[in-house]
C-alpha cells in the first residue's frame, strides 16, 4: 500500500456546467479523445500520497461516471456519490463517504484534468507538515479592488496575491468540524479553504502550475488540449 493510504481524494464533479453550454456535464468533454474526468482520475491513480478516491457527481451522471471510472482503470475509486445543491454540500457528501481509516482529505475539482501526480503529492506532503495546504500560483496581473460600483478603491500588492487551485488538503476531522460550523452559521463557500479560514486555521500555499487550469468555458478546452499536445511532444 502506498504511503498515502490514510489520504482520500474527494473529486468534486457535480457542477451544472452552465457556462460550457455542452448539453452534458463538462466532466465528460473529450480532451484529445479522453474524457476530462478520466484524466483527472488517472492523475490521482498515479499519486503516491493518495490511497483512495471518492467521486461526487450529479445523480443523472452516475451511470456515465461509472463507465468513465471503469474505462480508465481508476482502481482507487472507493465510491461514487451524488452531490448537493452547492459546491460545499457536494464536498460534504464526498467527505461523508471516505473509507474507514481516512485521516486526510484532498478535495479537487474534477474539471481540473491537467493536474500532475507530483503536484498532488507535494500538496498532501505540505498538509502533513503544516496541517492544511492548497495548490496555488502567484497572480500575474495587477489586481484592483473595487468599491462595488465599478470604481477602483485600492490596488493590493501583487507579490502577496496568489490564485488558489486544487487539490486542497486538510485533516479530515478538522475539515468535518469546519463544515459543521459553516452549516450552522448558514455560510456556504465555493472554496474549501474558506471553511478552515473562518475557524482560524492557517493554510500553507504549495506552489502549483499555471497549467492546472479549470475547464469553465469552451476556450479552456482549447487551451487544455494545447497544453496536452505540448506535453506529448516533450515526453
Describe the structure in your own words:
There is one protein chain. This protein has helices at residues 36-46, 62-72, 87-96, 117-130, 172-185, 192-197, 218-234; strands spanning 7-13, 30-31, 34-35, 52-57, 77-82, 104-109, 132-138, 145-146, 152-154, 162-171, 204-207. The strands form 3 sheets. A 7-stranded mixed β-sheet has the order 5-4-1-6-10-7-11, sandwiched between helices. Strand 2 (30-31) and strand 3 (34-35) form a beta hairpin. The radius of gyration is 17 Å and the shape is globular. It has 7 helices and 11 strands. The chain is of the alpha/beta class. Helix content is 35%, strand content 23%. The chain starts with 6 loop residues before the first strand and ends with a helix. The chain has one domain (7-139, 165-227): Spore Coat Polysaccharide Biosynthesis Protein SpsA, Chain A.
